[in-house]
Each structure stands twice: as C-alpha cells, then as structure tokens.
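Late entry, written up from scratch paper. The run itself happened at the end of the previous shift, but nothing got recorded in the book at the time, so transcribing now.
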Amino acid sequence: MTQLNNKTKFDFNKSIANLEKIVQTMEAGDLSLESALKNYEKGITLVRECQVALNQAEQKIALLSKQDNYQNEQPFEVED
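Output as recorded:
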C-alpha cells in the first residue's frame, strides 16, 4: 500500500480533483481500451493515496482527542 510520509508533499484536494477528471473522462466512454486501463490504474492509485491520507488524519484526530481524555469531543452534525 502507498505510504505517505513527511518527505512527500501530498495534496489531497489536487488528488481528488484529478480523480474527478479521470472519472469524467472514463464516463464519457471515448477512450481506447489501453487508455481506459491507464486511467483506471491512475485512479486506483489516487484512491489508495487519499485513503492513506484520510486514515492518517483520523489517527491524528483520535490521538489528539485521547490526549485531552475526550473532554472536548463533540458529535459530528451535518449542516443542511
């Protein structure tokens, strides 16, 4: 699995934007099989990198919450 570290500058928002472009391109259906496979491979790589970044963020939040004995933990509410 892809490992993100401090030496590699990972831009989550840029990766999501690139992933959205790949999806749009593939959904258009105008690609050759070879191009579609290359786009699919790149998309899978981006998804995995984003998952790693999200997991790391979740771990950091959990660690920070644990440090204050979860005293400041608030339920997550979605605003409409």
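DSSP finds two helices and no strands in the chain.
(Scratch paper discarded after transcription.)
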